[in-house]
Amino acid sequence: MAAFRALCLAGPTASGKSALALAAAERLPLEIVSVDSALVFRGMDIGTAKPSAAEQAAVPHHLIDILDPLQAYSAARFVADTQRLVDEIHARGRLPLLVGGTMLYFKALRDGLDEMPPADAAVRAVLDAEAAERGWPALHAELARVDPATAARLPPQDAQRVQRALEVFRVSGRPLSAWQRGPAGDAAERAAAWPMVSLEPASRGWLHQRIAERFEAMLAAGFLQEVQALRERGDLHAGLPSMRCVGYRQAWEVLDAAGAAHPDATGVARLRETGIAATRQLAKRQLTWLRSTVVQQRIACDAAGAAARALEALVALARP
Asked: What is the average per-residue pLDDT within 42-68?
């Protein structure tokens, strides 16, 4: 059995992680564990670029389609699920490959989690009501007053994390940054248990073009219709973690503006603009995290021959 727990493949959205993972499975006896906070939800396929049924049949995939969009998933649950899955995959004589771009999940797995107050539905409802009245930038400004360290690392539009930070403060009276003391021990030693290859483009323009092309493909594949079908269930709303996912939040807003009618060309153009912009912001945050963490091999995924180099890097890490 390998000395490490699992191989990790990280990178910003649209950097080519899924294709590389499938290629690696042709060389290694892999099972893929998704590290993606959106792929856990059923019925959210197009906007998450979920692996196809054929791809999931070709290589075992885990932590995909495990929740209804009405439910919530947490970093703590991800860590528990992944630790269990890694043990099960090793017991089958296979190698776990963790693939995704939810950097909070990678961090929680590598560094551990501090004990924090559990979610409080009543406090969250109050915060949602305040956000509807005042806007998330105003709540971000409030966070800056009570927890400047956390506010400094969160953009005002990151509603989910701004809400959680304010929730922790209101429930406990302590800022989130005071709970997040950080792990003990050497970062390199912790990371060695979860060795990582990261895909990091040298050119931001290359990634922006990939993001735009993928969003166009999602629209052509029926992304708006997918979100409309979710809305028509009647039990989902824009405040849920599932509907706050990048792309889904922007599509929900466009459909809200259209009312009973299907969005016109202006609405679709607005979705294209806001969806691509939000995805670029997500990629920026992902790259910022990657550049500040321990990574065994960084691959410039926009360079010639990058896919082959990344594949060899994974194969080399897998060797005992």
From this structure: 97
